[in-house]
Write a structure and sequence with these properties.
single chain, 218 residues, alpha+beta, 3-stranded antiparallel β-sheet, two-stranded antiparallel sheet
Length: 218
């Protein structure tokens, strides 16, 4: 069963899903506040489950061997039972529909709630750590490799801005370094601007870790 938005996921299983937002450049060109032009970004929202629902038989075998998998089995079982119940929904207003409502699956909230919140917090922390980041009105990639590129540019700044080959190819202009943004457009950045991006990523990582710890300790 596919849900187009998080709001359309039934409340009993909504906390087992999250929305993933991705951005792709389109053919449309927009004008930025600084007067430069760049491709317009199209955002796509996909609703995905937090839990990787493995084969039920495999989960049962794992749970029998390792008690740690009992949570996965309980979550998987409830989720699958609930989706099956949704698929069997009769027409609204019929007697069958009233009977169907009385058969709504119930979950062991005491067992599941805290553990699923921890899994959610950890997954959100890991996903958002490398998501796009906006600094000074510009949107940057901040995946692991992009972060290394940012840090590496700062560490070798003097070498880069004085390199004759980079100057000749106009990768360096007026002491600024040419950089590719998240939408694949290019812009010249100062050393301080790159430092601002690195600082913003570092602060976000710490905040995400604090958010995860808060969820874990509640």
């Amino acid at each position: 069963m596919i849900f187009t938005t998080l709001a359309k996921v039934p409340l009993p299983i909504r906390n087992q899903y999250y929305e993933e937002v991705t951005s792709e450049p389109t053919k449309n060109i927009i004008k930025r506040e600084d007067g430069s032009f760049a491709p317009e970004l199209l955002e796509t929202v996909t609703v995905l489950p937090f839990i990787n629902h493995l084969d039920r038989k495999a989960l049962i075998n794992r749970a029998n061997i390792n008690e740690a998998y009992s949570l996965e089995l309980a979550i998987h079982t409830f989720h699958e039972e609930y989706l099956m119940w949704l698929r069997l929904e009769p027409l609204l207003g019929t007697e069958d529909h009233i009977n169907w409502l009385s058969l709504e699956p119930k979950k062991n909230t005491v067992f599941i709630t805290k553990n699923i919140k921890i899994k959610q917090g950890k997954l959100l922390r890991n996903n958002q750590r490398y998501s796009l980041i906006e600094v000074d009105g510009l949107t940057f990639d901040s995946d692991e490799q992009s972060y290394k590129n940012l840090v590496g540019s700062l560490a070798n700044w003097t070498t880069l801005i004085n390199d004759s080959s980079l100057l000749e190819r106009q990768a360096i202009v007026d002491g600024k370094l040419l950089w590719v943004l998240a939408d694949n457009s290019t812009v010249y950045l100062t050393q301080q601007q790159i430092q601002n991006v690195v600082d913003a990523i570092a602060v976000r990582v710490v905040n995400l870790q604090l958010d995860y710890m808060a969820v874990k300790n509640t």
